[in-house]
Write a structure and sequence with these properties.
- There is one protein chain.
- The chain is mainly α.
- The protein has one domain: Recoverin, domain 1 (Orthogonal Bundle), CATH 1.10.238.
- It has a two-stranded antiparallel ribbon.
Length: 113
C-alpha cells in the first residue's frame, strides 16, 4: 500500500471509531487527494479546533473557496458541530476527516465529482 492508502485507512478508522460514521470510501479518497501534500506534513495534516486562525483557514479555504458556500454563522456552527462529533478532547483531528465531515454536512459531495 502507498503512504496515501495508509492515511486513508487511518482516516476511515477515525470516522468509524471516533465519529461513529460509516465512511463513503470513494468520497474519502477524493477529499484526501484534494488536501494535496498537506496530509504528509505533521502540522498541516491536523486541525486544531482551539486555534482561531486554524478554524478561519478551514472556513475560508475549504468551506468558502472549495465548497463555494457563502460566509455566515452557519459555517461556524457547522465547524463547531464537526469538531464536537470528532471529539473536543481528541487532539489530533485529521484535516481530511474534518473536510469529509463538512462536505457531508453541507451535502456538497458533487464538488468532488
Amino acid at each position: 500500500m502507498s503512504k496515501r492508502d495508509d492515511l486513508i485507512a487511518t482516516y476511515a478508522s477515525d470516522l468509524t471509531e471516533k465519529c461513529s460514521v460509516t465512511p463513503d470510501m470513494d468520497l474519502l479518497t477524493k477529499v484526501t487527494i484534494g488536501c494535496g501534500p498537506a496530509i504528509y506534513n505533521a502540522d498541516s495534516s491536523t486541525v486544531s479546533g482551539t486555534d482561531e486562525s486554524e478554524v478561519a483557514t478551514v472556513k475560508n479555504n475549504f468551506l468558502i473557496k472549495k465548497l463555494g458556500l457563502t460566509d455566515g454563522p452557519d459555517l461556524d456552527s457547522a465547524i463547531d458541530s464537526v469538531l464536537e462529533t470528532y471529539g473536543k478532547s481528541n487532539r489530533s483531528k485529521y484535516r481530511a476527516v474534518v473536510y469529509y465531515l463538512l462536505t457531508k454536512h453541507f451535502g456538497k459531495e458533487a464538488v468532488y465529482g
